[in-house]
Amino acid sequence: AQASLKIKLVKPSLVGCPRTMAAMDLAVICEALQATQQPEGEARKKAEQLLDQAASGSPNQLVAALAGVLASPAAQVADALRQEAAVILRQLVVGLASRDSVWAGLEAETKKQLMAQLLKTAETDTSNPVRRNAGHVAVAIGNRVADTFEELQKEWPEILPFISKHTASGTDSATRVLVLKMLKDLTPTVGEGLLAQGTHAVSMLAATLSDQAAEVRAAGAQVALTFIEDLANEDAAPVAEVMPALVTTLQGLATPSTEELLKETLEALISAAEAEPEFFKEANCLKELSETLLAVASAASATFADEDVRHSAMEALMGLVLGLEEDVSKPEGRPLLEALVGVNIAWMLEVEEDVDMWTMEGKDKDDDDCDGDAVGLGEENMDRLAEVFDEDTLMPIIFKVVRQVMQLQDATWKTARACVMALAQVAEHLEEDAWVDQCVEFIVKHLDHAHPRVKYSAFWAISQVCYDQSPHVQASHHETLLPAIVQGIDDSNVRVATSAVNAFSALGEELDSEDIEPQMDDLLMRMFNRLHAGEAQALQEQCLSGIAVIAEVSEELFAPYYSHVMPMLKQVIVKSTSEEQRTLQGKAFECVSLIGSVVGKAVFLQDANEVMATMMPLAKDGFAADDPRREAFHEAAGKIATTLGKDFKPYAEALLSSIFNVLKQRPAENPDDDDDNESLDENLQLLGLKTSVLEEMEEALELTNSLVLALEEDFCHFLPATCQNLLPLLDMQLSESLRETVFKTWEVLAGCARGAAGSGCLDAAVLRELVAEFLKRTVGAMMSSPKSDELTESTCTTLRIQAAGCAGVLRKAGEGVLTKDGVKDIAVVIAQLLDGIPCPADTPSEPGLLRRRGGPVVDDDSDGDEVEPEDEPPVSAQSVRFSLCEMLGALMRANPQDFVEVVLPTFMELVKTLVKPDRPEHDRCLGFYLADDMVACLGEKSLPYWNGFMNEALTAMLDKSAVIRQFAASTIGNGAPQPIFAQVAPAAATQIHKVLQKQGEKHRRRRAVKVDAKQSALAVDACIRALGQICEHHDSQFGADAGAAWSMWLSNLPLKYNVDAGKATHAQLVDLVVKNHPVLTTPDKLPAVLAVFTEIYKSKFSTSDLDNQIAKAASSLGEEHLKTLCSGFKEKQQKKMEQMLKAVRAGA
């Protein structure tokens, strides 16, 4: 009967097959299946094409034919072909990326016959692989035809009785395992209903978990764990009854002969623990389960042939501990945490013992690939624990374990290395300086260890801690670390020396010239020697970075070394011509450019021209996608341009020609030669945009920005061509980062055109044309963005960047660039977009700390690049709304009078609505954000609208939302300069007092690491800023309490998070001191003021102008008087004060 199955196909021939497929009898379908199993070739390709055509044109006949293959005995059809038939059937049911499922289009009789045949094959076929694959097809059908237990009973009444029948103890083990796996895969559909039927399912699980056959016990355990993973805790509750048996099963599987079964079961446990950790606590099995997992994870590495067994046990345990953090943090849970820390540190002992091998394999690429996987996993797990657990819970346990293992009689260099690395992994997440200090002190003890691997790890750890805990580590430990680093650079092991130089770069970036001066000769001499010796390229590259750091930090102190350093660097550039040396040459370019910026144009000009003569041919020829010099070239050229200023103009035309060629790159048709495409947005992949192309375009734009800023009005000559090449980018689909850089370049060009128009070098009409064309394209694109009830993250990202780009261009273009009608038109667009953006109740209130004004200092990674916090919320509708408000603020500043006349009344009504207490949190955040900006920008012109929001702001300073608190406090502070504010000054000061009494001490003592903590810190900073503004303008309202108000303000300085507010507040303090403020300049207050000066000076919360003012203000007190006032200062503060005085003397 089966031989009569036929199927008509469009193409009757199959090259390479002995028969045609005009009539698909059993032999013909088998020939097609045989062809699909051949290596890549014409026969296989044609067979696949014809099967695809059959799936599209005659799915019933194709499914029936494949079912006929399954029905054929092994003597007639080979196992491999029956297995292939099952695989293709599953593809037909589930569908492929290139083909939809055919199930819905099949006739009822075809479905019925296929279902029956699948169960028969799963039960009786002589080949286990064929049976398994038939089971896979059955599960795929079951999950497709039903969503619940009841639906499956209706749509396929035979399948659940089939599974129930064959889980019984009388069935052979292979069949029981098969049907248990089917049940496992059907759990999302039938699990809840099956457990709700009574005790049958639990009894079945109990029976399988006590079966004689290990494979049956493992399959039963996996079913139980899948119930836990896929069902809600209350629905999975009956499974708790079999958890003791499940733990016993795990224990029994922990043998070399059953390790593959154990690994599969542990993988199911990992998924269950990640999804529902609470279940294991509620089932009262956590203790026994964790002890079992610890035993497996603690086994010697040779216990199991497959290392993944131990890894899976560890991952399951990590999932439970991290998921139950609150319970494990309690005293009764801490022994488990201690044991877990101990096992991870034990894993970190499994390092390569052969030092020569470790040195040779890692000296050029500086990594530890020769170590076992367990080492890296142990280190990663320490980081994961520190990210989740409170440091006051975790750190005592870590130090306890470290002390214990270091005191063991069998402790070796491996023990020391493991403990050093464990502390390095957790340091990033610490907020208390005391814990950081303990970590550093432990690591420092091992910088001169006898074993190279310990020294290497200790210097590496110092690098990480310096980056993670800057500037505290530099300020507190540089005197100990610098001499140890000098000694490390001289180490006989090249990898230790490389790690020591890297540690210096991490440490040195935040030091002052006075800090580094005592060690400067020794550092440079050793780096010169190592660079010249050329023992390892990684060491040479680190030395170049280290020399650059010394130059940048030492400033004028570097001048005597210039004549020795520059010839050596030029030599490196000239000699590093091989493909392997490209990274080294790029590092040399960067080092030269940075040193040039330190010594200045007068000293650097001749050498700069020589270096540019070497670099320009590279620009002309362009860079291959994988050329490591490309990024270094662009950065170096930009920095040299910044140093030379207008003297760089001779190189601008050729560089811009190269830049324009890069920007003209367009999507490739087949982007299959880029390994990094998987990192791109799917839409960008479809367009064929390669990662390397996007990165090169971004670097080219950043170099353009440097050229514009360096040449100033002289760039006007290149302005038309530059705009012409940038305009098409506004219409292209680009990555988020590249799109932001495109808008930044337009912003820079607008600023250049504004400056040139102001100096008479450019017709103002050109500026207006530039801005008008940019706005026409960008605002037009914003208006045509997709409209829906819920914006996708991609659409939100695009809108946010477009709005921020418009805001930047308007700010740089300056006042008067728009007509009154233009102001009104843009405001209407902003209003329409704000009104049309859907904001459901669960919209986050925070748009992202780095996506709005009043944000924190941006952290840098180890390469000095800005990085977004890991827990920064994704771009959302709220991010777009805030960016639109930024755009409105830029419009307000571009044409303030026109804005007041035609825009302000409408938007103040919006503010009045948004800030009401009954509005959702995301609306109130936005309302105070707008109110704050308008009060700050428009001042007295905003007074007629104060009744709509000022009282609400006063109350909201104590709101539960930190975002609301921040902008309510900022609104209050920015309103303080107005005389009418005197009416509410005492009430506002009282509110601020409540905030600082509650949070001030923690704010001063702890470092905010996570996003929520940073947002709270920003709110406190806003209160401190507001208090200073209120005190300055209304301290007369406080009567006898005025001195206390000023003292509170001063005691909470400097600001440490909000960059903009920090700079403004610190400038206010300096200005008040210069004007001899009657409270702040009293003898008892001046030491505190000067202490604040030392923390502000040359920090991210100051500017070069403010630094000069601070130095002059301090110097004006007289050096002898300063000595008395600063007698109680810490050494670091004393040095900062000396640095200020030195700067004033040099300026004089």
Descriptors for this entry?
69% helix, single chain, mainly alpha, 56 helices, disordered N terminus, 1148 residues
Report on this model:
The protein has 1148 residues and is mostly helical. Helices cover 69% and strands 0% of the residues. The protein has 56 helices and no strands. Helix 45 packs antiparallel against helix 46 (921-938) and helix 54 crosses helix 56. It is globular. Residues 1-23 and 669-687 have low confidence and may be disordered.
Strand and helix map with partners:
Blueprint lengths: L25 H11 L5 H16 L1 H13 L7 H16 L13 H17 L3 H18 L3 H7 L3 H8 L6 H24 L3 H10 L4 H17 L2 H4 L6 H11 L5 H17 L1 H6 L3 H12 L10 H16 L1 H4 L5 H14 L7 H8 L10 H16 L2 H16 L6 H14 L6 H12 L7 H17 L3 H18 L4 H15 L4 H4 L3 H14 L3 H18 L4 H17 L6 H18 L1 H21 L7 H16 L4 H15 L18 H6 L3 H21 L7 H8 L9 H23 L5 H20 L9 H21 L6 H17 L40 H18 L1 H7 L1 H11 L6 H18 L11 H7 L5 H14 L9 H21 L5 H24 L7 H10 L7 H16 L11 H11 L7 H12 L3 H7 L5 H17 L1
Helix pairs in contact: 1-2, 2-3, 3-4, 3-5, 4-6, 5-6, 6-9, 8-9, 9-11, 10-11, 11-13, 11-14, 14-17, 16-17, 19-21, 19-22, 21-23, 22-23, 23-25, 24-25, 24-26, 25-26, 25-27, 26-27, 27-30, 29-30, 30-32, 31-32, 32-33, 32-34, 33-34, 33-35, 34-37, 35-37, 37-39, 39-40, 39-41, 40-41, 41-43, 42-43, ...
Radius of gyration: 35 Å
- Taking the alpha carbons of the first and last residues, their distance comes to 107 Å
Shape from CA axes?
globular
> In terms of structural class, how would the helical and strand content be classed?
mainly alpha
Uncertain runs: 1-23, 669-687
Mean pLDDT: 90
